[in-house]
Amino acid sequence: MKSRRASLSPAGSFAPSFANVLVRARPPLPSEASYGHCARTDGKKVVLTTETEAPGRGKRLKAVECQYDKVLGIQAGQEEVWGIAMPVVNKALDGYNVTIFTYGMTGSGKTYTMLGPALMDSAFEGQVTSSDLIAKDEHRGVVVRTMQYLFQQAPEAQIFLSYVQIYQERCYDLLQPPNVPSKPLKVREDPQKKPGQNVNVFVEDLSEVRVGNLEECLEYLMAGFGNVALRSTHYNEQSSRAHCILTLTLRQQLPDQRIRESKLRLVDLAGNERWVIHGPQISPQHARELATINKSLHILGSCLQTLSQPVTTNRRGQELVKHVPYRDSTLTQLLRDSLAGNSYTLMICTICCSILYQMQTLSTLRFADRVKRVKMRATICDTVDPAEQQQQIQAEVEYLRSAVSGAASGNVQELKQKVSELRKACLGLEGENRVLREQIAELEKQPVPMKSTMKKAAARVRRANSEPSLPTPDPWFDHEDLGDLQAIYYRSHDDLGSRMAGSCPKGHRLDSLGSIAHPLPAAANAAYFEWHCDRPGCRGSSRQLDLGRFHCSLCQHDLCQVCYDQLVGKSYSKVDVHAHRARRKPPANSPPSPVARARVEGVERRPEPERRQPRPAFRAAPAPARSAPAPPPGKSAPSRTPRGPEEPKGPEKPP
Ligand code: ADP
Ligand code: MG
């Protein structure tokens, strides 16, 4: 007899991206005591010895050595199993989905491992057991310990419980009261699945209860397990004939308003059962159960077989999508996510070491080996609670609305107030301006106004015009530009003669004029004129405060209508002024302007002896050329406006 060692999987260490596999050997029952062992556990290995018979070669012994993440022998207690399961349960607290399966032949100890003997007895034999006793039971199973651990580690988390059984490929809610006729529930896939996302599978109308403490949780567990379909089998007195899935949903509130929701599935699979041909007759119902259980477990194996295959790519290096027959059974459809999706999976494979069940044990070990190769893609399931998110958004919208409306109303009110203030100021200025104009007009009508009155009026005009009519400072009144823009009105002699003829009360010809001009351009339209009779011995004179026209101090021309309008209308700017200059710049060969001509002539005609010394005017302007009398020695000539046209600057100085 030869023995051969075969390895189902390469010896490897715990790989977090793959499903974890724990193999647990059940101690032999009294009925198996007289039979030998076929399996031996050794650290992480299971060595299974099988007897094969080849034609013509006789019987041969074959040893199969399998290596898993962890192997527990027959002496191992429930505490050691929990030692393996606890790190996986911890993942659920970290926000991952977690699934713990038990798989094995009927009677190999799956339910024992998951629930423990106390809970099993309460369901199978109808013993009344309190949740307190179950919680304190030394042999309590993984499910009870998990519940204890969750309430201990995350007391602030919300825990929801649902319990379902798949019996003959139909899904039933185990939390329904026993007197209520249970009806099968539909397993559905979330239609709003996006490409690249895992399919979300759920059971329609499945009741999910929130459990506040361990006692409550254990009560639901006991009640649910009491509803599981049981039957006496060839292997044990009472065996569950349905796959039981207990789901604990953990909802944890994170500090940054996110919700961490993870699902912890604890699955007690129904054991596969061999049809014993020479055994006692089984009922059709039992046969149906056996067939459906074996079928669903076979499909589970097929899914895992496909999933454990290495990834294949096409010639372009693209990953080929493999067909996994999840939909072939309700079990695989419901556990789709736990098999190869977003979950950390621990498979606890229970085996019997008796030689009676060596084929079943070999089958279980093969299954465990397949599971070990399945790659998992677990991710943290953090979401924002939709209701809370909606509330947050609504609060933000309200805040923004109030901010916008408050700001808008504040602005409008502020602006309205400003506008009304400005209107009032404008009205006040307009009124003052009107009054001043009227006063000026009256003064103009007076034939010989008093000098002081004239002074006052001129000062008043100056003051009024120096006050900006608009509250904002006029950018045009640049100090630098004052020299350029100072304007004074000069009438030509012809004009003067035609307009002022007969102004002298005695009917004599008027021959001199004086003028004042405000230094600011805005006031330059206020000019004071004084005419004197040029007849010797006649003291006839005429004075006039004129809001007249402009005269450019640089180009020596009257302002054109456009420029005048711009200046008077205050729609001017520097550009306008320079445009005016350019417009009025006399060409090199053009005749001099009337004023320039008059000045030149005045220079030539200055020594006219008989001219009367003109009365000094209020800031008298220079005497016009043709008729200006020469000042007598010792008497000063009438002064001109300091920056009047007498001191032309720049290139436009007339020849
Ligand atoms: P399964 O659920 O796989 O069909 P059970 O959990 O019902 O099997 O176990 C069958 C029998 O084996 C039960 O009577 C149980 O008490 C016993 N048993 C299973 N595992 C152990 C164990 N580790 N130690 C002691 N007894 C066990
Ligand atoms: Mg069982």
Automatic annotation (TrEMBL):
Pfam families: Kinesin (PF00225). Residues 18-374 form the Kinesin motor domain. Keywords: ATP-binding, Coiled coil, Cytoplasm, Microtubule, Motor protein, Nucleotide-binding. ATP binds at residues 104-111. It is found in: Cytoplasm. Residues 598-613, 643-655 have a biased composition (Basic and acidic residues). Residues 615-628 have a biased composition (Low complexity). SMART domains: KISc. Residues 412-446 form a coiled coil. Residues 578-655 are annotated as: Disordered. Belongs to the TRAFAC class myosin-kinesin ATPase superfamily. Kinesin family. This is Kinesin-like protein. It comes from Durusdinium trenchii.
